[in-house]
Structure formats: C-alpha cells, structure tokens
Specification:
41% helix, alpha+beta
Length: 348
C-alpha cells in the first residue's frame, strides 16, 4: 500500500509544535530544581530528615513531554526517604497519608507561592500560576536482608492508605531501554519517541479532550506494544501504529503494566481508554484520504490539520513553491518494519 508522503510535513510539525525546544527543556529543569530546593528547605525548617534521593519520573524523564498551548505541564519528581526517616515525634513510622502531609507542609513553608500544595492519592501536587504543576510522589526505602545475608532494597509508594511496592523509575528504564534497542537495530530508535509525543499531542489536541482521554503512560504502553517502524517515514509509521492500537482497543481496553507483572494500567471497559480509542478512530477515518490514489497534497495537509486541530500543515509551502509541480502525488515506499527475533512479530 502506498500513501502520500507527508514525512516532511510531520517532521516540521514535530519540530515546531510538538517537541520541547532547548529553552523549554531548560525551563523544565529550572522548575524541577526549584521544587526540590523548596521541599528540602521546608523539611529542614521543621527539623525533619531530608529525602535521600530525588528523581524525575514519567514523561519528563522519558523525554516524551510535548508542547501545550495552556502550559499544562506535569513534572513528576519523586522524593525517596529512608524508612526510619519517616517517623513522628514519638518514633512511630508515618502512615502513607501522614508522609504525604509532611511533604505538603514542607512545600507550604514558602509563602511566595500563589497556590498552596495539595495532597493527592498518589502524590503531593504543587500548582503554579503559569499553568504547570509538579507532582511529588513520596516513597520510603525499605532495606531487608535475604536468606543469603544480602541486602535487598524495596521502594514503597505512599498511595492512598497503603505503602505499595512500586518505583516509577523502573518504567522510565523500561521505555528508555526500548528506545536504545531500536537505535541498535535497523531503524532510527528515536522514531518511537517521536511517535509517542505525536500521539499524546493528538490525544490532547482539544481542551475538552484532556480530562476525558487516558493517561500518558497508557498511551506510551500502547505505542510500544504496537509500534510499526517505517524508516524515514514518521507519517506512515504513525498511521500504521495508530491502526494497530485502534484494532487492539476495539477488542480489549485492558492495558498491562509495563514492569509489574499481574498489574494493569487500565482494566476492561475503562472509559478513558474508550474515549482515546474513539478519538483515534475519528483520526484514522479522516486520514483515509491519504490512501486514495487521487489524494492531493492540499487534501492530505487538510486531513492532518483536522487530526491535530491546527492550521500548521495547510500553511506550509505548496508543491509549486517547492518546485515539485512535476512530481506525482504518491511516493511508493517499502513497508520495512522493525521486528523482534521472536517469531516475526512487530516490535513490542
């Protein structure tokens, strides 16, 4: 199957409207570091022990954050405390809620902040006037000795009323390892990261969609599981990957956790996953024009505009401006797909 080659358009859109530039990345680091300093200063002021580790998680650490017109950025930065450093005044270990409340209180010591920090189910959230927020999951580090006399370290997240064995950094390592595997293979591994950002951008391309669609980690897991690599053609890779994801979600909305066996990110019938699936289906229906032998460059760009809720594509130079008048509308490319050596399945 041949589709109109829009790779230059997708590449330009990704560079201009999707990926975070160096200045944005520097600003993200500045925000993260300021939050860390604020937490440590607040804890020290109350005489509480400081976290032994502070590590970025999620899309920030995986480098899959995308530009957002409302500056709705979520920076995840975990605070890891030794278990015995999370005790109250009489030496009793803090409950998960009390641990989150201690971190929240420490952040609130800075009276320059417009919004007070708030305690959430799985983190402490600090909102900022610009629109972004920093989520601080609170972990305790539990050190045990196994039957061999070796130290075993476990990380427990303060989640609701429970300490849950979990470490989001494992998810970051999972994703970055997969990108690395592709880099060592036949395709440009960064294509996986670009498709992840483009998918998240599309899923949140309307303000009304943001609160209804599924989480970034669910989208990321779906991209990895159904990734179809097409070297040199991000446009076609995106289309084929979306088709594979949509077909999967039409059958089941259950999404397995990437690193925790037996746990799921989403269960069967999940409303947010269904919403993501249906919006993706609408996008695929719009993009059917790309497979029409009579599709023009103008039609293709209008379709991509609709999909991403933008005018970026149609505002690109026309074929005449690019001196491509004599070219036919289609460029036939091979359907090269990155595959594992595990029975000729698609990567993921």
């Amino acid at each position: 199957m041949a589709i109109l080659d829009c790779n230059d358009d997708i590449d330009a859109y990704h560079s201009a409207e999707v990926t975070l530039g160096r200045d944005d990345q520097a600003e993200m680091r500045k925000r993260r570091d300021a939050g860390r300093t604020r937490l440590r200063t607040g804890l020290a002021g109350k005489g509480h022990p400081l976290p032994s580790e502070q590590d970025s998680q999620g899309s920030y650490a995986m480098r899959t954050m995308h530009q957002d017109g409302q500056c709705d950025y979520d920076i995840d930065d975990g605070a890891y405390f030794e278990k015995d450093d999370l005790k109250d005044a009489v030496g009793v270990h803090l409950s998960p809620l009390a641990a989150r409340e201690r971190v929240c209180e420490a952040l609130q010591q800075d009276d320059r902040l417009k919004y007070p920090a708030s305690v959430k189910t799985n983190c402490v959230r600090q909102k900022y006037p610009e629109g972004y927020h920093i989520d601080i999951p609170v972990y305790r580090i539990v050190r045990e000795t196994n039957w061999k006399g070796e130290e075993v370290v476990k990380y427990q997240l303060a989640s609701g009323d429970n300490w849950v064995v979990q470490d989001a950094r494992a998810v970051t390592r999972w994703y970055n390892r997969l990108v690395g595997e592709l880099n060592a293979g036949e395709s440009d591994g960064s294509q996986l990261r670009r498709l992840t950002k483009l998918t998240k951008k599309q899923a949140r391309s309307r303000i009304a969609w943001k609160s209804n669609t599924t989480s970034g980690i669910c989208m990321t897991k779906l991209i990895v599981d159904h990734f179809v690599a097409v070297p040199g053609r991000d446009d076609e890779a995106l289309l084929q990957t979306w088709k594979a994801i949509h077909a999967k979600l039409a059958w089941t909305q259950r999404i397995a956790h990437p690193v925790m066996a037996g746990r799921n990110l989403a269960e069967e019938g999940d409303a947010e996953v269904k919403y993501f699936r249906d919006r993706l289906g609408e996008a695929l229906n719009t993009l059917k024009v790309l497979e029409d032998a009579k599709c023009t460059r103008e039609q293709a760009r209008k379709a991509w505009d609709i999909v991403f809720n933008t005018s970026f594509f149609s505002s690109r130079p026309s074929d005449d401006d690019e001196d491509t008048r004599g070219r036919g509308p289609f460029i036939v490319t091979s359907q090269e797909v990155a595959r594992r050596n595990d029975g000729d399945r698609r990567f993921g």
